[in-house]
Amino acid sequence: MSLLCLLATEAELRAGMTPPEAWLTPTEQARWLAFGTAARRESFLAGRWLARLALQQWRGSDARPALAVADSGACHVTDGSGGFVSISHSAGTVVCAVAGVPVGVDVESLGRPRDHLALAETVHSAAQRGRLARLPAEARAEHFLQLWTLKEAWLKARGQGLDFALMRRLSFEDDPQGDVAVAVLGDLVLAIAADPALPLHLDTPQNATWRRGRTHIAAA
């Protein structure tokens, strides 16, 4: 069993994309048309196109996969050929992960200005906020986003939306056979997760050095 993770820019995906009317399924088309801006529609198309490319590569088949929009808004494989898919977007970059078990992926840009100490109040535990506050200001973005992306990917792999109370209870320890992994690729922080555990083989973007871990959930 393996996990495949592909990363591309929206511009790259648009350049190779065939007309969406030829491959969008009804739930995807409804979601696409519901977006209020052209930028949101273009971003959605880029993610759905990359999901198809990733599934084809993971399966080793040129057959076009059938996808739908789940009630949660996530990408759902409907053609019965296997595979679970997760998509994430940030700063014009799209990432898609595919695996034989439920999978989640999240990507965030280090270049986006944020008040990381204020955001941590919402999504990190008291101990995690303390460690963040003790770091030099220039090191906080990467540290905050590694935890944030791990938490969001973990939730996605379990079919859950953002749950700030649960996110504050999540922590991670190094484990080569755990359920999450995180990497920094230039100005991007990328995390993947699977349920119950990540496959041992990760087919991921070149130059990605993954730090694997296991998730712990503190008592409420």
Q: How does this model look, in words?
A:
A five-stranded antiparallel sheet has the order 6-9-8-11-7. A four-stranded mixed sheet has the order 4-5-1-10. The model has no long low-confidence stretch (mean pLDDT 96). With 220 residues, it is an alpha+beta fold. The chain has one domain: 4'-phosphopantetheinyl transferase domain (Ribosomal Protein L22, Chain A, Alpha-Beta Complex). The chain has helices at 10-16, 26-34, 38-59, 116-123, 126-134, 140-157, 164-169; strands at 2-9, 67-69, 75-77, 84-90, 93-99, 103-109, 170-174, 180-185, 188-194, 201-203, 211-217.
Give a brief outline of the structure.
It is built from seven helices and eleven strands. It has 220 residues and is α+β, with helices and mostly antiparallel strands.
Please give the structural blueprint.
Elements: E1 2-9, H1 10-16, H2 26-34, H3 38-59, E2 67-69, E3 75-77, E4 84-90, E5 93-99, E6 103-109, H4 116-123, H5 126-134, H6 140-157, H7 164-169, E7 170-174, E8 180-185, E9 188-194, E10 201-203, E11 211-217
Parallel strand pairs: 1-10
Antiparallel strand pairs: 1-5, 2-3, 4-5, 6-9, 7-11, 8-9, 8-11
Number of helices: 7
Oligomer type: single chain
Please name the CATH architecture: Alpha-Beta Complex
How many β strands by DSSP? 11
Key features of this structure:
single chain; 220 residues; alpha+beta; Ribosomal Protein L22, Chain A; four-stranded mixed β-sheet; globular
